[in-house]
Amino acid sequence: MNQQQVFNTSFLSSYTNKQGKLIPDLLLRSEPSPNEMVSIIEEFTNTYKNFSPDDIELREAACIAIQLKGIIRPIQEQDLFAGRMIQMPIGFTPQSKGTGLGYCIHPDIDQMLLNKPELSDKNNGKLEELLSFWQQEGTVQKSRKKMPEEVKQIIPSELYFLESGIAFQLYRMSGVQLDYYKLIKLGISGLLEEIATNKSNYLPDSKEFKLYLGMESVLHSFSELCLFYAAQSNELAVREANADRATELAEMSKVLENISENKPTTFREGLQLVYLYNRFDGAKNYGRMDNYLADLYNEDHKNGRIDEEEAVRLLSGIWRLMIFRDNRYDTRLIIGGLGRYDEEKADEVAMLILETSNRIADIVPQVALRFHKKQNFKLYQKGLNVLASGNTFPMLYNDEVNIPAVQKAFNIPYQEAIHAIQFGCGEYVINHRSVGTPSGVINLLQALLVTINRGIDPTTGKPMGMPLDQYLKYRDFETFEDLFNAYKEQVSYHVGPLALQEYLEYTHAAEDNSYLTTSILMNDCIKRGKAVFDGGIRYMGGTLETYGNTNTADSLTAIRELVYKKKEFTLDELRKMLVADFKGFEIERRKLLDCSKYGNDNDVADEMMLEVHNHICKVTSEQAALIGLHSYLVVVINNDANTVLGTFTSASPDGRKVATYLCPGNNPVGGADKNGVTAFLNSLAKLDPTIHAGSVQNMKFSKEVVTKHRKMFEVLIDTYFENGGTQAMLTVINKGDLEEAIKYPSKYQNLIVRVGGFSERFVNLPPETQREILSRTLN
Amino acid sequence: MNNQIFDIQTFSLHDGPGIRTTVFLKGCTLRCQWCSNPEGFDSKPTLSYQLKKCTQCLECVEKCPTGALTSQNGKLVVQHKKCNGCGECIESCQTQALKLYGYHADAQEIINLVQKDKSYFDKSGGGITLSGGEVMRQAEFTREILQLAKQAEIHTCIETCGFGKQDDYASILPLVDIFLFDYKLTDPKEHKKYTGQSNKLILENLKFICSSRAKIILRLPVIPKINDNIEHFKAVIALSNKYENIEKVEIMPYHNWGEHKYREIGLSLPEIEAESATDQEIANWESTFIEMGCKKLIRH
């Protein structure tokens, strides 16, 4: 297919008759039938095959145009915006569910398509062929094949959720934060203009020219998408009996028609454009929403076109779509902080965003509130009020500490660091200027356990990790330093290949795809004429997810104390205890549990944590220069991987039993923070934030503290931030926690039950008293 | 026994202004029947036993030098009165069914620990509070801690029931920023009945402290049916009006959240049969105080 033919592939043409008129029934169809879906995938695959691998840009544009009719889903009854789209069972998406990096098979293809009874025999056969094809041609599959032996040998598995291991590979792209501000400022026509201008600097057979062509093509597809939804909502309006809803749908249609070409001029148009582009690209995070909507809201509000209630109503419409989409580990939305164009205007939108989240309290969007010393205090206060009502969000991010930390960690100037925002589970990226996909997982506790067992995985009994000859210099672990240094070498052994895998994954991805929709809105792709992973992105970074950090530090503290200092038992005896999961060794387990633990402002335990933290962060960040990434940094984040990894990790010297969850994020192991919340905060603030790319700190409080003692609560959190605290994810105990806290009081050890002159910990109270206290505090 | 404490509690919000760290000293001169910290009564370490955690392994029996722990029919028998607080049994208990309240601590150790939260004190107007038990049971220890606190520029509060030697109060007066002075009952007979001591010395000490420039918050444990009567309230208000130094009056509503501790340390439950004060009762008491002209009441 030549370049001209690319533009002849029109998505809208599937919905028009021979005279070019849109067919209403087709417009309103809910989704392709399974047989139709197979046809679309077939057409998609044939399109793919028609292009040479030299024309990946055009190939991608054509494939995106073809698959569009497979991914769109109709506007529903309550929707205020268009944008219900799914990921193809087989298709192209930059950010797939599960493993995927461009051309990919959806992990849920079984439920989506394979077992549908409606499928004809012929289509079943075709589907099998198509699957065979893409199991070889998928972007991830291609990358896997090209991975060097070193990587395959040292990091053999991707299945962190199915088996034990020290390190795992991950193939995906995540954490893309697009330049929604630019999207709104320029609109589709503005972007096309910019691309055309740049394109004119290159010869037609150059790679740059092809990239710009590809970009123009996908933007045309996007325009058609807008027009499609405009026609659909118009058709729905015509058929709608309810007058109000008909008006709403007509308004939606007008909005969609406008943004198909022009830059948005209203708040509603801005929201629609951003949301629809986000879905078209497949991105999962929403950038600095207060920043990019600030001007539009301000104009509308000034001119009496919108009031606060209407703005919240519209935002709620977007929230509901986000909730339906349910990317619970992403859907990050950042408000507040330095680096916004007009803080005052942006603050107005930020307040509305908080109000919307207050009313629609759900697990998404994950609103993060950045704050700095000179920021309008009302935003922070509102954030705390929303939290006090029992909401999980906003998460608080302290610019005063984080911006200098990002400057150092990413080695970028202040003017760039102010654009650092979070994605996914808490990792930093520099807004639309960097990428930082976590492409690897390392279980530090497993690294320690395998080291203690001199190269044997205690979970399976099989060899694991660095080869035996690397243990020789550590003798028989005569001293603690021998063991600790062996652990450090075990970690380094894995980090090198992990970094290489990240770098190569990007390289392979760039060889296969241009990620056109992403590249359009990431600096500096259009300017340089290069796709995002092909030299276009300003800062090509990577991240490494670390788990079991606290368990590892606490385990080392306990080993040093009981095996080497007090000599209460030998290392060999410890091995036996762990294998037995402490059965018959309850007293010894008690001693291990009683050793100092991180999170109690105890110097011994905290210094060990610092050493473990500093080691993994430094070893990781050093890789960037070696392999050619701008940065390669540790992230210590919070998702359910800590639970999953824990199930495959044997008992550990910190007293943890087999299969128990690993510590979440940067936190002490649940229940280990015995010395109170101030000690916990003091411990947290000790960790150096300048050497990694994000961590999460969870804190639970009773409602009483956050409402009745609001002033003191604020002082507590303020002091924590002043002492160097980076972030706080504050949750107020709610009804759901009530029974949990009674069943597992050790997880809520720090729950503050404060009455004058009364000495007791929540965990020690009888259940009836716990219940009484908690139900009081829930009021 | 000296230098005995039984708890250090951070982020205390009800033991003086701001965010505080409360240090609970062991040993008390009274035996109030509504006390929520009975583990603080005895000056020496107090053994606690939780039956529901016990696996009846009986490992502790052989460790006990005094025969406080014996077995009968395969079950552990705990005789708290025989316990000398040595703590030999604690380590042998796999499930922490046995616990010891009370441990030795240096004044300097305590201050080192307390100082870790100094940034929170400074921002909130908080500091250290000494409570218990009764701090004046270990007057020298109390004085030592307060001295070091002052040197470290930490705001100081002590909670006291007022039953101690006047000389001891004199020695700590310059070191205390705020006294949290507990006032329990007015009628001397009732006072003796419910606390084990007369209130004569207490009132004398209150007068003595008030004659200095010390700041006082009068703290009133109010227990339904025991002391929630008009006569007592009247007397409290009169006291608070009489002494200018009494800056505030604070009602401490009775709660029975410490009741489980009585059982665990082998004490019979207090004779008073009181339920935790309800929100309505508390509101009524506060209204009564206001109506009776108390201008210094801290409202909850």
Characterise the protein shown here.
The complex is a heterodimer of chains A (about 775) and B (about 300). Helix content of chain A is about 55%, strand content about 10%. The model of chain A has no long low-confidence stretch (mean pLDDT about 90). In chain A, the strands form 4 sheets. In chain A, strands 3, 9, 10, 11 and 12 form a 5-stranded mixed beta sheet that branches. In chain A, helix 3 (about 35-50) runs antiparallel to helix 4 (about 55-70). The longest helix of chain A is centred in the N-terminal third of the chain and has 33 residues, at about 205-240. By secondary structure, chain A is α/β, with parallel strands linked by helices. By secondary structure, chain B is an alpha/beta fold. Chain B folds into 2 domains: about 5-45 and about 105-300, Aldolase class I (TIM Barrel, Alpha-Beta Barrel), CATH 3.20.20.70; about 45-100, Alpha-Beta Plaits (2-Layer Sandwich), CATH 3.30.70.20. Chain B has 10 helices and 12 strands. Chain B has helices at about 60-65, 105-115, 120-125, 140-150, 165-170, 190-195, 200-210, 230-240, 260-265, 280-290, and strands spanning about 5-10, 20-25, 45-50, 70, 75-80, 100, 105, 125-130, 155-160, 180, 215-220, 245-255. In chain B, the strands form 3 sheets. In chain B, strands 7-1-2-8-9-10-11-12 form an 8-stranded mixed beta sheet. Chains A and B meet through helix 26, helix 30, helix 32 and helix 34 of A and strand 1, strand 2 and helix 3 of B.
